[in-house]
Structure formats: structure tokens, C-alpha cells
């Protein structure tokens, strides 16, 4: 069998980049290490280009252990875009924190983990990618060693992530026990023949393990504490990248490996999605800290994305991919504003955002647009995304669509509360906030992308149609 | 280059739209730069429009079909919305005319708006205004057109109320917006019905399907749709009874009045009816409705214009009246005559509004024509260009208005609409009379010693001169003997009436009679004794006309008595039932449940782990109960 290693180009490239950043950090003097941020950003851009150029180069490696289809490639593009934007928007934050080379290399290894996860063709690769990503994130979460909150968040993440991994592994081993295979496609064939109770138990454990990563209720308890404690850029990457990667593998496992027992899990996913949407949105209301607010809002967003899994159809997959992609821009836009605001003022409290529209019109407008997009207000991207997601379920799960609709209305309340503070209240401190160029670029990219996808979703929709189609090709 | 312009006609609305964005986000603090950006945007649009129009009018095949291209904007099973460009002789003429007149108005505005604190904002709004209109004109899809349509409405609101410190301006802006919104609701319903019945809003596709509408629906439904669609133009083009906003719209800066009246706003309604003529022409009764509305509006507004005193108000009623002519032409089935009148009207009406603006600047916004007089001596360019406009609108050959008005009257006569023809002809007489009343009162006769007018600067007079030239020669493309116009712009068959000398001579005589009467009453009779005596003798009629038939008062009464009354009732219901019980109750419930759920977030690891495992357990049990195949789980039967 021919092994076409060119399929692995992006993964190889990002590994080299990560190692290079790590080694360079040891070699170059401390004062010039801020250049590592630029190296990482440009390197990510290069890997992104490499990934995009391999769009038509599809195939599987190592007897189905590693799948490179357009579905996986699309998710890799999503991760790399997110990583690039986070890096670009957080250089000053990282420079203030110090230890740039460790930070950036961990960031790159987390990205590598996500890419492996998106391409995972069997449970071993799945677990490998998942752990690579998780361990890198654990390091990143407690990166501010001297900050009690950050360290506490790191400890909590280690323990809870370990627990969820254990549950996941248990589930995987049950499925292996029943089907005798770890390859997703073979499991799919075996499950179709022999649905047995143990499989259901395995399924539940899988839901729990991956539900933890996407912070679906009731496996979401960790998220607000860790989102609040972690350095803000890490939070934003955790909210975007880790979640998107987990959705990628969730779809792969459920739609490709477990379609045989679809009847057992479709209602389960629908209910989980509903309570995730409800809890996320309701608890976001009383929050006073912007990071906690965004954490709960991201829980709610995960609930919306789960809707796409309910029907397990090509349209549903398309909805998930579309939403995951636009979610990158909205979330990173909002978090970059929060990061920079923290840099300048040292505060994450919503009340300190008073008069932001006067201090920095761009920051205020990006925050507003990103939040309105998450709330699903046309003509922003979030509206189109929700439209694609809920379109798939109106026939059979109308109640879920109603819950989504009502809770979107609720979400407008807490998003606009932030807008009100930014635009109506008088600032306590009138000094204008000057944006550094990379941050301004990040914000503008996030804003323009959110507007563009919302107004003219056609091209992206076509790309995703191809990608969703490739999912069912093998 | 010509091909490029035709293939990229979307640049025409895009350039002024970009100017809007650039001014708002970048150049706002620098006034001159903002004006430059706006003028560059619209002149660029004009260049592209001119090239595209040249391309269209040198290819005879465009009379057969139009150039349509675009992209799919939204697509899902059962609903496809395309946005694109539809370039045919009609739209090519329109973009040329709109961008040309807008360019001149923009240049004029650089002089008129000088020193205004909102200078940059003004130019950003007018750029968006022009962009919206150009988008509307070029649209290949009704929904896309509607976007332009609503943007035009929004811009008119912003610009009419531009002097936000004036209460009258704010009120006028609201009036314009609300009146148009009422009409737009009808249009929206009509569009929805079209989408439901025919499954598309693409103009070319609709035209094909409506030609065989019996396969889709009954004539009754189509009549209803046509009436609903027509409501939009009634509002936007100031037709009776929704004309009330247009005279008040002069509260905005004068260049805005010129834009609204000549190029960007009111003609949108006429244009929409023209674009949708394939719908109206299927329903004879709808055509009659359009024709009667038009003729009635023409006459009705002309009678009001006779008694008005403010210079811009007279012009505003004259616009309403002229728009009536355009509707009349469409109603009797001639797209050609209607568009032709729109074309000539754009030139002379922009000319007259900008002339009025020049006068107002010179007189420090003293608007009453009775207090002017003799301005020709101090402001010769403004006065003589205004006279050209007056000759054009009165219909004196060879000025532009003569040819187009003659075409409309001849078409009405040829289609055997004798009553409408008579109304049109009488309106022609009134038009000449009230317009020349204005001219004699304001520009001739004795000077008012209280005024110290000076001629306006070059950037205001040059556009006037160019427009005066256009108002003179603009009609020569459509003379009855060699009617190039109707060979290009027509609906169905090439429509062209043979030269009707009777109509021509008759309309000239009527126009001259009107001018002569004005001359006698307001020029020869220096003390205006006869005019005042006439007003005294027919006091009742005079007051009725001066108060515009009390239409505004009737609407106000209706608002106070019925709308406000029922609103009060709903208000009580709203605060006590809806707000008190439903909204606040729900809000409190939502907030409280948020607070309640928040308590679960303890920060303790053990609790989190507990919830996690409980979740696993509950799901497993729930699944076991819900599906028989999993029930074995509970019984301990792991295979």
C-alpha cells in the first residue's frame, strides 16, 4: 500500500513550527522574544495556506487510522484561522506575561492536537489528538503561574479533564468490546448488525466525554471557572478551537460509527441541546464579569451547534460546520476586545466597559457586532448559521426550534446589556484607548468576516456543501 | 472600456456607496475632503453610467432583451433570491440621468452647504441617497429593488430632517417616513403575494410567468396584487392621497429637495410602475387606476400650486403635478412617454429647485415670493436659467418639457381617454400660470428694498447653466417627427403616435394663455389689484386651495380621533396586561431562574464531578427506559 505522506503536510509543518518556536525561545535573547509572536502568526498563515492548497488532495492513511477528507480539511482551516487570529490579537498580552516561546509552542501543539482529532479515523488516533490538545491546554490555562485564579483553573482543568477522559476511554473500550474494532468505519458496519445494550452504555460515556469538551449541560460545570481563570487569549482559543475540534470528532463518531443506533441517540442529543441552550442563556443573564458572560454564552452556542447533530444528515453537518466557522470570528472578536481591554485597564468587569464607544469606537463596535451575531440578528453571520441549523429540525423537532428561538431572544437581553454599558454610560476615565496595529487588524477581520458571511453566505455555503458531502464518501 | 462598464454596471451604485463609507469612517473631520470624496464617487458613477448607457444605445439588440447578470444571494429549497444587474435601455437611461443630475446637485451643494456644521455628514447622506437610487434602478430582482427603495426612504428621512434643530424639519422627516412606510407596506404585501403565487421575484422571470398568469392564479388575485404593488408608488411618488409628505419635504436643505424631486426619490415610484408594467398591463382595470390616479393628482396639485406663497412649496406641488403626468402616461400604456417626461422633468425641476436655493441663499432664507421681486437685476444667471426652466415646464417649444408633455397628451388622446386628456390639457394651462406667477413675482417687477441679493458663486451657477442647457435640448431626442426615444424605450410594441399638430398647437396655446394671464395679473398690474380682487371674490375657493384642500387637517383629525383614541386603549392594555403580567412576569421569571441556576456553580471540584457522573447516570437510565433494546442495561445484562 502506498502511503501518500503529502496528506500529512499541514500536520508536519505545524509540528516543525512548534518545535522551532520552542527551540528558538531558548536560543535568542529575552528582549527579542516578542518576535516569536510574529513568527507564530506568519507560520500559522503559511500552514493555513498549505492546508487550503491541499483542498483537493483527499485520502486515508494507515488503514483508515487517519482520514484526510474535505470535511477534515475544512475543520483544520477553521482551527488554523482561529489560532492565527488569537495569536495576532494577543501578542501584547503574551509579551506582558513572558515565556513567549513556551506559550506559542503550546498553542501550536494544541492546534496540532485539534488537526489530528479532525482527521481521526479510529479511536486510538482520536484519543491521541484529544489528549495532545487537552494537555497543551492545561499548560496554557495555568500559564500565569503567579496568579491564583489561573493556577486554580489549571488544577480544576487537569482533574476534570482527566475524569472526562477516563469516562471517554471507558466508553470507547465498551464499543471496542462489542464490535471488536477501533476503526470508525468498521465500527459503523458492526453496529448496524448487532445493536446491544452495552453499546448504549458506551454511547452514553462517549456523549459525556465529548460533551465535556464542548461544555454541553450537564457536563459544562468546569467551563465558567476555567474560562474566567485562564489568560484571556487562552480562553478564547479554548472556547473556539477546542470546541470546534470536539464537534468535528463528535460528528465523525456519531454519524459515521454509530448511525446503526441512531434511534437511541437522536432524542438524547436533542434534549441535551435544549438544556444546554436554556441553561447557558439563563445563567449568562446575572453575570457581571465579561469573561464569565462569554463563557456562558459559549455554552449556549454549543447548544445551538448540537442541533445540527440531531438529524445526522448532510444538512445538519453543513449547519455545524457553518456555525463553527462563523463562531470563530464572533468569539475571537469579542475575546480580543476583552483581552485588550484587560491589558489597558486591568479589569474584566462589565461595568468598567462604560463609555467604551467614546474611548475606542472600533472596540465597541466589534464587541457589539460579535455579540449580535451570537444572538443571531440579521444581517450578521450568526443569523445565517442559526438559520441553517434550525432549518434541519423544524420538521421533526419543532419544539427544539422554539426553544432555540425563545432563548435567542433571551440572549439579546444580556448581550445588549453590555452594549448599553458601552454606548449609553459615561466613562469614568475619558482617556482614549489606542489600539495596536495587530489588534486592530484582528478586530477588523473579525468584524468584516461576520458581516460578510451574514450578507453574502453563498461562497462559504458552497465550500461547506462540498466538505459535508465528502464526509459520506468513505 | 464600454464593455467593461456594461459588465460591471454594479460599480455605478457601488462608487457612491463607497463614498458614503469612506466619509463616515475616515474623512468626516475634514470637510473639503469629504465633499471631494462624495463628488468623486458620484462623478465616477456618472462616467461608468455614461459608458454603460453608450454601450446600450449603440447595440440595437438591447431593444429585444436586456443584459442580466448577478449572483445567487440566498438559496434554500423553495426559495431562491438572486441579486443582480438588469441593464436595458430604460435602466441605462435612468442611471445616466440620475448620476448626471446628482453630480450637478453635489457640485452645487459644495457651495450651498458651505459653512454648515454638518457639511461632511450631509455629503455622506447624499452619497448613500444616490447609491440607493442607482441600486433600485439597476436591480434585476424585486427584493433587491425593495432594498434600494427602503434605503431611499431612509435617506430621505435623514436628509429632510437634516436641520435637526428645526422642529418643522423633524416633523417633516417623520411625516415623509411614516407616509412612505404606509405605502411600502402595501408594496411589501404585493411582493410577498408575487413570491407566493409565482415563486420568484426576478423581474425577467416574473415577466414571463405573468404573461401566462392563468396557469398560476385568477385575474382577481392578480388585480389585488397589482393594487397592492401600486400602493408603494402612490406613497413614494407623492400621488393623491399620499402626496402630503412631498411639499413638507422642502424642509431639508435645498440640494436635497432637488435630489428628491428630480433624481433620486419621487421618480422611484414611477420607475417601479414602469418596471412592473408587465403586471399592470395584464389587468385593464389596474391600468385605469394608474391613469386616473395620475391625471387626478396632476390637476389636483396644480390647483393648489396656484395659491401658494413659498417658492419651494410651489415647486413641490408642481412636482406632484408632473408626477401625475408620468403616472397618467403609464396608465394609458406608454412607458416611452412616461420615461421621456421623467427625463426632461429631472433637468428642469432640478434646475428650478437649485435656482430657488440660489435665491434663498441670497435672501437669507426668505421664502415668500411676494416679498421678492426684481431679482433679475442682481442675480441674472439664476433668474434667466430659472426662466428657461419655466419655459420648459410650461411646455413652450423647443424647450424639453414641450416634447414630453405633448407625447403624453397625444398618447392619452390616441388611447381614447378623452376626460383624462382634458384634465391633462387643463393642467398644462394651470402649470404655465402658476409657474410664471412665481417667475413674475420673484424675478421681475420692482425690487424689494429690504433685500440685498448677490449672485451665487460659480459652483452654484455652473450647474444651473448646464441644467438650463439640458432643459433646452433634452427633449430633442424625442420629437414627434424623428422619435429616437420611443424606438429604444418602450413596452410591448414600439409605441409612437404620429405627429398630432392639433395637440401640439393646442397645448402651446394653453401654455401661452397661462403665461399671458400671469403676465397680466402679476407683471403689468404692479399693485396686484386684480389678483387680490380675484382672491377676495372667490374667497372660499382661494382658502380651500391655499390650505391644500385641508387634506393634512383631515389626516390630523383622523389621527387624533381614531388612531390616538384606539392607541390609548391599547396603551392601557399594554401597560397593565402585556407589560405588567406577561413581559415583566416573564422577565422576572427568566432572571430569577438565571440566579437560581447560578447557585449550582459553586466553584467546588467535587460538586462538578458529582454533577458530571449524575449526568452520565441519568442519561443511561433515561435511555434504558425509553428504548427496549437498552432495557437490558438496568437488568444488569451487559450482553
From TrEMBL, chain A:
One of its GO terms (cellular component) is plasma membrane. Signal peptide: none annotated. Keywords: Cell membrane, Membrane, NAD, Quinone, Translocase, Transmembrane, Transmembrane helix, Transport. It is a multi-pass membrane protein. It catalyses: a quinone + NADH + 5 H(+)(in) = a quinol + NAD(+) + 4 H(+)(out). Residues 120-408 form the NADH:quinone oxidoreductase/Mrp antiporter transmembrane domain. InterPro entries: NADH-Q_OxRdtase_suN/2, ND/Mrp_TM. It is an enzyme of class 7 (translocase). GO terms for molecular function: NADH dehydrogenase (quinone) (non-electrogenic) activity; NADH dehydrogenase (ubiquinone) activity; quinone binding. It is found in: Cell membrane; Endomembrane system; Membrane. Its EC number is 7.1.1.-. The chain crosses the membrane at residues 12-29, 36-55, 71-91, 103-120, 126-146, 158-178, 198-222, 234-255, 261-284, 320-342, 362-385, 397-416, 436-456. GO terms for biological process: ATP synthesis coupled electron transport. It comes from the Bacteria. NDH-1 is composed of 14 different subunits. Subunits NuoA, H, J, K, L, M, N constitute the membrane sector of the complex. PANTHER family: NADH DEHYDROGENASE. NDH-1 shuttles electrons from NADH, via FMN and iron-sulfur (Fe-S) centers, to quinones in the respiratory chain. The immediate electron acceptor for the enzyme in this species is believed to be a menaquinone. Couples the redox reaction to proton translocation (for every two electrons transferred, four hydrogen ions are translocated across the cytoplasmic membrane), and thus conserves the redox energy in a proton gradient. Belongs to the complex I subunit 2 family. This is NADH-quinone oxidoreductase subunit N. It comes from Desulfotomaculum copahuensis. The gene is nuoN.
Automatic annotation (TrEMBL), chain B:
It comes from the Bacteria. Residues 73-123 form the NADH-Ubiquinone oxidoreductase (complex I) chain 5 N-terminal domain. It is found in: Endomembrane system; Membrane. The chain crosses the membrane at residues 6-26, 33-57, 92-109, 121-140, 146-164, 176-201, 213-235, 256-280, 286-307, 314-336, 342-363, 383-403, 415-436, 457-478, 498-519, 610-635. Residues 139-431 form the NADH:quinone oxidoreductase/Mrp antiporter transmembrane domain. It holds the Pfam family Proton_antipo_N. The lineage of its organism: Bacteria, Bacillati, Bacillota, Clostridia, Eubacteriales. Keywords: Membrane, Transmembrane, Transmembrane helix. GO terms for biological process: ATP synthesis coupled electron transport; electron transport coupled proton transport. This is NADH-quinone oxidoreductase subunit L. InterPro entries: NADHpl_OxRdtase_5_subgr, ND/Mrp_TM, NU5C-like, Proton_antipo_N. GO terms for cellular component: endomembrane system; membrane. Belongs to the CPA3 antiporters (TC 2.A.63) subunit A family. GO terms for molecular function: NADH dehydrogenase (ubiquinone) activity; NADH dehydrogenase activity; quinone binding. It is a multi-pass membrane protein. It comes from Desulfotomaculum copahuensis.
Amino acid at each position: 500500500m502506498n502511503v501518500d505522506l503529502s496528506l500529512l503536510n499541514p500536520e508536519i509543518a505545524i509540528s516543525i513550527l512548534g518545535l522551532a518556536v520552542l527551540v528558538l525561545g531558548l536560543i535568542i535573547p529575552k528582549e527579542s522574544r516578542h518576535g516569536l509572536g510574529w513568527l507564530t502568526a506568519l507560520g500559522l498563515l503559511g500552514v493555513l495556506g498549505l492546508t487550503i492548497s491541499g483542498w483537493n488532495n483527499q485520502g486515508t492513511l494507515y488503514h483508515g487510522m487517519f482520514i484526510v477528507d474535505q470535511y477534515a480539511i475544512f475543520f483544520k482551516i477553521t482551527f488554523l484561522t482561529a489560532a492565527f487570529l488569537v495569536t495576532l490579537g494577543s501578542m501584547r498580552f503574551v509579551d506582558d506575561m513572558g515565556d513567549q516561546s513556551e506559550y506559542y509552542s503550546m498553542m501550536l501543539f494544541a492546534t496540532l492536537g485539534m488537526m489530528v482529532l479532525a482527521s481521526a479515523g479510529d479511536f486510538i488516533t482520536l484519543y491521541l489528538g484529544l489528549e495532545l490538545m487537552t494537555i497543551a491546554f492545561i499548560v496554557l490555562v495555568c500559564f500565569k503561574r503567579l496568579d491564583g485564579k489561573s493556577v486554580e483553573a489549571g488544577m480544576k482543568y487537569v482533574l476534570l479533564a482527566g475524569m472526562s477522559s477516563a469516562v471517554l476511554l471507558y466508553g470507547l473500550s465498551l464499543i471496542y468490546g462489542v464490535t471488536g474494532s477501533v476503526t470508525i468505519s468498521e465500527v459503523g458496519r458492526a453496529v448496524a448488525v448487532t445493536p446491544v445494550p452495552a453499546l448504549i452504555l458506551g454511547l452514553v460515556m462517549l456523549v459525556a466525554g465529548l460533551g465535556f469538551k464542548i461544555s454541553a449541560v450537564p457536563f459544562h460545570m468546569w467551563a465558567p471557572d476555567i474560562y474566567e481563570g485562564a489568560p484571556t487569549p487562552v480562553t478564547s482559543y479554548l472556547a473556539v478551537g477546542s470546541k470546534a475540534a470536539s464537534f468535528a470528532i463528535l460528528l465523525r463518531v456519531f454519524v459515521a460509527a454509530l448511525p446503526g443506533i441512531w434511534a437511541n441517540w437522536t432524542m438524547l442529543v436533542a434534549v441535551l441541546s435544549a438544556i444546554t441552550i436554556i441553561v447557558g442563556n439563563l445563567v449568562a443573564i446575572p453575570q457581571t464579569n465579561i469573561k464569565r458572560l462569554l463563557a456562558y454564552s459559549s455554552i449556549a452556542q454549543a447548544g445551538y451547534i448540537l442541533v445540527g447533530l440531531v438529524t445526522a444528515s448532510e444538512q445538519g453537518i453543513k449547519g455545524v460546520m457553518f456555525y463553527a466557522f462563523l463562531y470563530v470570528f464572533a468569539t475571537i472578536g469579542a475575546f480580543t476586545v476583552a483581552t485588550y481591554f484587560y491589558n489597558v485597564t486591568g479589569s474584566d468587569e462589565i461595568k468598567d466597559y462604560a463609555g467604551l464607544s467614546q474611548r475606542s469606537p472600533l472596540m465597541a463596535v466589534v464587541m457589539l457586532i460579535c455579540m449580535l451575531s451570537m444572538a443571531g440578528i440579521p444581517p450578521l453571520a450568526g443569523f445565517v448559521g442559526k438559520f441553517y441549523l434550525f432549518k434541519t429540525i423544524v420538521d421533526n423537532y419543532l419544539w427544539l426550534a422554539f426553544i432555540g428561538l425563545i432563548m435567542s431572544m433571551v440572549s439579546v437581553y444580556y448581550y445588549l446589556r453590555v452594549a448599553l454599558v458601552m454606548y449609553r454610560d459615561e466613562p469614568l476615565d475619558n482617556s482614549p484607548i489606542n489600539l495596536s496595529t495587530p489588534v486592530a487588524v484582528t478586530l477588523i477581520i473579525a468584524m468584516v468576516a461576520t458581516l460578510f458571511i451574514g450578507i453574502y453566505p453563498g461562497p462559504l455555503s458552497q465550500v461547506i456543501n462540498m466538505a459535508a458531502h465528502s464526509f459520506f464518501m468513505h | 472600456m464600454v464593455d467593461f462598464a456594461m459588465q460591471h454596471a454594479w460599480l455605478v451604485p457601488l462608487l457612491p456607496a463607497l463614498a458614503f463609507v469612506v466619509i463616515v469612517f475616515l474623512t468626516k473631520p475634514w470637510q473639503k475632503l469629504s465633499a471631494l470624496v462624495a463628488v468623486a464617487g458620484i462623478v465616477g458613477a456618472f462616467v461608468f453610467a455614461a459608458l454603460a448607457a453608450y454601450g446600450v444605445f449603440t447595440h440595437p439588440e438591447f431593444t429585444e432583451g436586456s443584459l442580466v447578470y448577478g449572483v445567487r444571494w440566498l438559496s434554500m429549497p423553495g426559495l431562491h433570491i438572486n441579486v443582480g444587474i438588469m441593464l436595458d435601455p430604460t435602466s441605462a437611461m435612468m442611471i445616466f440621468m440620475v448620476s448626471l443630475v446628482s453630480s450637478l446637485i453635489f457640485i452645487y451643494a459644495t457651495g450651498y452647504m458651505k459653512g454648515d456644521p454638518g457639511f461632511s455628514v450631509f455629503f455622506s447622506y447624499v452619497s448613500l441617497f444616490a447609491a440607493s437610487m442607482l441600486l433600485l434602478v439597476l436591480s434585476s430582482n424585486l427584493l433587491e429593488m425593495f432594498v434600494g427603495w427602503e434605503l431611499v426612504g431612509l435617506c430621505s428621512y435623514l436628509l429632510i430632517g437634516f436641520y435637526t434643530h428645526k422642529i418643522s424639519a423633524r416633523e417633516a422627516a417623520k411625516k415623509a417616513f411614516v407616509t412612505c412606510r404606509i405605502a411600502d407596506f402595501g408594496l411589501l404585501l404585493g411582493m410577498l403575494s408575487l413570491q407566493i403565487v409565482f415563486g420568484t421575484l426576478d423581474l425577467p422571470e416574473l415577466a414571463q410567468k405573468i404573461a401566462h398568469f392563468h396557469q398560476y392564479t385568477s385575474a382577481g388575485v392578480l388585480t389585488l396584487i397589482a393594487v397592492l404593488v401600486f400602493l408603494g408608488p402612490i406613497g413614494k411618488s407623492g400621488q393623491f392621497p399620499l402626496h402630503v409628505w412631498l411639499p413638507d419635504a422642502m424642509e431639508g436643505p435645498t440640494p436635497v429637495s432637488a435630489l428628491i424631486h428630480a433624481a433620486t426619490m419621487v421618480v422611484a415610484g414611477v420607475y417601479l410602475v414602469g418596471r412592473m408594467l408587465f403586471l399592470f398591463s395584464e389587468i385593464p382595470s389596474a391600468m385605469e387606476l394608474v391613469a386616473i390616479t395620475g391625471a387626478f393628482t396632476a390637476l389636483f396639485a396644480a390647483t393648489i400650486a396656484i395659491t401658494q406663497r413659498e417658492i419651494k412649496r410651489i415647486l413641490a406641488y408642481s412636482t406632484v403635478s408632473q408626477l401625475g403626468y408620468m403616472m397618467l402616461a403609464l396608465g394609458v400604456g406608454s412607458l416611452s412617454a412616461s420615461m421621456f417626461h421623467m427625463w426632461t422633468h429631472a433637468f428642469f425641476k432640478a434646475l428650478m429647485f437649485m435656482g430657488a436655493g440660489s435665491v434663498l441663499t441670497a435672501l437669507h432664507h426668505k421664502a415668500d415670493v411676494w416679498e421678492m421681486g426684481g431679482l433679475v437685476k442682481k442675480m441674472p444667471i439664476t433668474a434667466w436659467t430659472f426662466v428657461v426652466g419655466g419655459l420648459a415646464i410650461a411646455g413652450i417649444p423647443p424647450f424639453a418639457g414641450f416634447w414630453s408633455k405633448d407625447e403624453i397628451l397625444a398618447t392619452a388622446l390616441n388611447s381614447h381617454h378623452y376626460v383624462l386628456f382634458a384634465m391633462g390639457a387643463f393642467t398644462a394651462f394651470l402649470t404655465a400660470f402658476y409657474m410664471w406667477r412665481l417667475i413674475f413675482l420673484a424675478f421681475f417687477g420692482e425690487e424689494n428694498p429690504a433685500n440685498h441679493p448677490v449672485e451665487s458663486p460659480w459652483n452654484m451657477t455652473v450647474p444651473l447653466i448646464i441644467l438650463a442647457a439640458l432643459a433646452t435640448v433634452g427633449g430633442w431626442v424625442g420629437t414627434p417627427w424623428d422619435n429616437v426615444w420611443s424606438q429604444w424605450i418602450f413596452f410591448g410594441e414600439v409605441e409612437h403616435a404620429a405627429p398630432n399638430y392639433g395637440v401640439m398647437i393646442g397645448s402651446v396655446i394653453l401654455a401661452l394663455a397661462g403665461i399671458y394671464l400671469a403676465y397680466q395679473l402679476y407683471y403689468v398690474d404692479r399693485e396686484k389689484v386684480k389678483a387680490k380682487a380675484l382672491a377676495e371674490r372667490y374667497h372660499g375657493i382661494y382658502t380651500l386651495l391655499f390650505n391644500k384642500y385641508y387634506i393634512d387637517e383631515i389626516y390630523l383629525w383622523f389621527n387624533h380621533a381614531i388612531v390616538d383614541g384606539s392607541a390609548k386603549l391599547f396603551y392601557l392594555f399594554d401597560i397593565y396586561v402585556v407589560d405588567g403580567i406577561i413581559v415583566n412576569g416573564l422577565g422576572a421569571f427568566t432572571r430569577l431562574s438565571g440566579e437560581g441556576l447560578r447557585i449550582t456553580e459553586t466553584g467546588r471540584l467535587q460538586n462538578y464531578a458529582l454533577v458530571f457522573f449524575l449526568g452520565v447516570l441519568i442519561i443511561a437510565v433515561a435511555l434504558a427506559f425509553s428504548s427496549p433494546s437498552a432495557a437490558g442495561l438496568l437488568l444488569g445484562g451487559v450482553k
